[in-house]
Amino acid sequence: MNKFWRFLLPVVGLALAACGNSDEYIEEALSQEAELVCKSRDFPVPAQVGFVADDNTSFNSMMNLSESANEVAIFSADGAIYRLSSFYNLQVLPSEYGGMDATVDDDVLFANIAGIIFNPPDLNVTHAYHDALYHLQNGERVMIIVLDGWGWYMHQYFAYSQPFLATQYRRKAHTVFPPFTPVVMSSIFTGQLPNVHGVHDRTTRTMSAPDIFENAYNQGFSSTLVQGGVNIVAASERPHLVPNLGHVFETDRGVFEAAMARIDDSDLLFIHFNSVDDISHTYGPYTPQVGEAMELIDEFVSELVQAREGVAIILGDHGQHLLGETDRVGDHLWISHEDIFVPYVVIRDGGRNE
């Protein structure tokens, strides 16, 4: 791509449509004639750009990856995700504006990317929203359980601590960017990516898209939301908040007891547990303390699933990697195989797995 196009493409009108309407994925058959720009210049350059393939991550690499995959998911800094399955040449290059850009088939530009997953899983966290509404509309009660920090690799590592969840059929899903709890919970609540729901950081609490509770209400379904500590984002359903009870294990026990007390109160029951993530931040994601948290949560999930008829959707919001800093040993910050992949489980009537 010549220098003329490098400066002209960021103002092409087509870019505004392409970047503003990524409801979930854009599936695009690309050709050499296509001129497509992802406008995410207004967002900060990601601290790391991650390339995830074969359960490994390479950061900040300059590479030609055209033969690495049949399919890619390109994560933009604005939270959009573009899934491409028809291309012959993918290159990642430093941008003159800072950060990294991806070019596809020589003249399609994705600006300010956060990372790329090669051969990504079919599922992502927004599917919980769509699956839940589907089952509600088919006359089934639904329970969504989000296990904060329940990453795919952490779950595999601690499978022995999760005798219930480890025996269920689990599918690998990916989360969104950035993989922060308010951002991901907004995607689970709304079924939208961050460039649509508008939550991009750990401080924003207002979503700009209707959430699952509003849509359920509009269709005649009742909802209950139970979570611990603070309100993650401002959902339309007023949450039952369990206060900090001195230790995150006790707070999650309070969430479990509050959920059990409301197990049959509504068509949609949404539960959020925090302990796995909190313990991972403090001690690191692969420590015995995390194993204890996994064991406790597994017991809670098992009892909840067996106590309620209908469909249970259980998923993590993100994983964690070892950061190693004194005040934050583990964290989830970018597109890496540890941060971005989570388990996704669907169980019917207490034990019939989907």
- Given the structure, what is the number of helices? 11
Compute the average pLDDT: 87
Tell me the CATH topology of the largest domain. Alkaline Phosphatase, subunit A
Provide the number of structural domains.
2
CATH class value of the largest domain: Alpha Beta
Question: Could you describe the 3D structure shown?
Answer:
This protein is of the alpha/beta class and 354 residues long. The protein has two domains: 3-118, no CATH class; 123-353, Alkaline Phosphatase, subunit A (3-Layer(aba) Sandwich), CATH 3.40.720. It contains eleven helices and 22 strands. Strands 12, 13, 14, 15, 16, 17, 18, 21 and 22 form a nine-stranded mixed β-sheet that branches. It has a six-stranded mixed β-sheet with strand order 1-7-6-11-3-4, with no helix packed on it. Strands 2-10-9-8-5 form a five-stranded mixed β-sheet. Helix 8 packs parallel to helix 10 and helix 9 runs antiparallel to helix 10 (288-307).
List keywords for this structure.
354 residues, alpha/beta, Alkaline Phosphatase, subunit A, 6-stranded mixed beta sheet, disordered N terminus
Walk me through the topology.
Elements: H1 3-8, H2 13-20, E1 26-29, E2 37-38, E3 50-53, E4 56-59, E5 63-64, E6 72-76, E7 81-86, E8 90-94, E9 100-104, E10 108-110, E11 113-118, E12 123-124, H3 127-137, E13 142-147, H4 152-157, E14 170-174, H5 181-190, H6 194-197, H7 212-218, E15 223-228, E16 240-242, H8 248-261, E17 268-273, H9 275-283, H10 288-307, E18 311-316, E19 321-322, E20 330-331, H11 337-340, E21 341-348, E22 352-353
Parallel strand pairs: 1-7, 2-10, 3-11, 12-14, 13-17, 13-18, 15-16, 15-17
Antiparallel strand pairs: 3-4, 5-8, 6-7, 6-11, 8-9, 9-10, 14-21, 18-21, 19-20, 21-22
Helix pairs in contact: 8-10, 9-10
